[in-house]
C-alpha cells in the first residue's frame, strides 16, 4: 500500500509506551479509498484464563439492560454499553466435565478425547475464523500466553492438534516488527525450500503406508495428513510475505521485558495485540493468562494461584483470589479502552471492528467444574449492553452457538460450529 502520509502519530498503550496509529483516509491511495467500509476488516481476539473466575463474584444478579456490574467487573463500567455478559452457557454434559483437563475445550466446545468422528475434530473458533482470507495478512493467526500451561491450550487446528503459544514478549515483538536483512531473507527462503522438500518426502512415505494398514490406522494417518496440510499452508503464507517489509512502529519493550513479573508483563501483551491488529499483521489472536508465578506476580498475594482457586469458600482465600481476578479484569478493561480510542477509516473504532471474547473454560475451579462458563463478549459490531442468562430455558443452548454468531459477524458464511444448534438467541448485530 502506498501511504500519502507517514504514520508518525501515536497513542499511549497499556504499558505506557506509544501505540501506532491506525490507517487513515489521508494515508490511502485513490483506489484504496473507493470502498472504505468494506475494506476495513473484522478482527477476533479470544482471551482465556486458565483458572476461571469465582462465579458469585463474576455474574450480575439482574439480567437485561438494567443490570449492575458486580464489584469484580466494575472496571468495565465505562464499556458496559459495548459488551455483553452471558451466564449459564457451557459445552454441555459430554464436553463440560474434566476439571483442569477440560479447560482446553473453551474455544472448541469439544474435548480432544471426544473429537473423533467430527469432520474438523475439535477446531477452535479462532482457527475457524483464521480460515477466512488467511493470505490477507502476514499471519493467519497468532497465539500468545503469559505462561506455559499444559491445560490452557486455547487454539486447536482442524486436525485436532493444539497450536503452541508464544510467551516471550521479545519474541512476539521481533515476529511482528523486527526487520530482516537481505541475507536473512535468503536464508529464510532456503529453509522454506528445505522444509517443503522434507514434507514432500514425508507425504510420499505416508501415501505408501496408507495402502498397507487397516481402517483405524488410516484414520490416524488422515489426521496426520491434515496436520501436514496445515504446515504446508503456513509455509506458503510465509513465502508469500517474506519479501514484504514489516510495519514500522515507534514502540519499544522494556529491556527487562522477559524478566518482568506477571503484573508488569500482562499489559505489554495487550499492547502488542493492539499493535498487531492496528498494523493488520493478523486479524485473529488468542491470549491465555495462567499461573502468576511463585512471587505472587507482583500482586501482593501470599499463596499460589492454583491453591487459591481451591478456596473451599474460605474468606481469606477468596479475598486473595479476588485480587488476581480484579487485576485480570482491569487489564482487559484497559485493552478495551485502547481499542475504543483508535479510529478506523470507516468512522468506527478498532473495538467496533474487533470481536473480543473474555472468559475461561473453567466455570468454578474450587469444585473443578466446567459448567456455567464466565463469558464476556465485547465490540465487533454486536448490539451490546445486556446480561443474557439462559438459566430458565428448558434446553440451554451450547456455548458453541455463541461461536457461530461470532463467526458470522466475522464474515464467514456458516450456520454450524462443532456441536452448535444455530446462532445464539438474544445476541444481535448492531447493523
Can you summarize this structure?
With 431 residues, the protein is α/β, with parallel strands linked by helices.
Describe the structure.
With 431 residues, the protein is an alpha/beta fold. It has helices at residues 36-39, 55-58, 92-95, 125-130, 169-177, 182-210, 215-241, 262-278, 305-309, 315-340, 400-410, and strands spanning 10-12, 18-20, 43-49, 83-87, 142-145, 284-289, 354-359, 375-378, 387-389. It folds into 2 domains: 10-177 and 249-410, Alkaline Phosphatase, subunit A (3-Layer(aba) Sandwich); 180-244. The strands form 2 sheets. A 7-stranded mixed beta sheet has the order 5-6-3-7-8-4-9, sandwiched between helices. β1 and β2 (18-20) form a beta hairpin.
Keywords:
single chain; 431 residues; alpha/beta; Alkaline Phosphatase, subunit A; 2 domains; seven-stranded mixed sheet; two-stranded antiparallel ribbon; 11 helices; 33% helix; 10% strand; disordered N terminus
In N-to-C order, the SSE pattern is EEHEHEHHEHHHHEHHEEEH
The percent of residues in helical segments reads 25-40%
The top-level CATH class of the largest domain is Alpha Beta
Instruction: Report strand %.
Output: 5-15%
Shape type: globular
Q: Uncertain segments of ≥5 residues (pLDDT<50)?
A: 1-12, 20-34
- The total count of helices amounts to 11
Please give the order of strands in the largest beta sheet: 5-6-3-7-8-4-9
Q: In the CATH scheme, what's the topology name of the largest domain?
A: Alkaline Phosphatase, subunit A
What's the number of extended β-strand segments? Answer: 9
**How many domain units?**
2
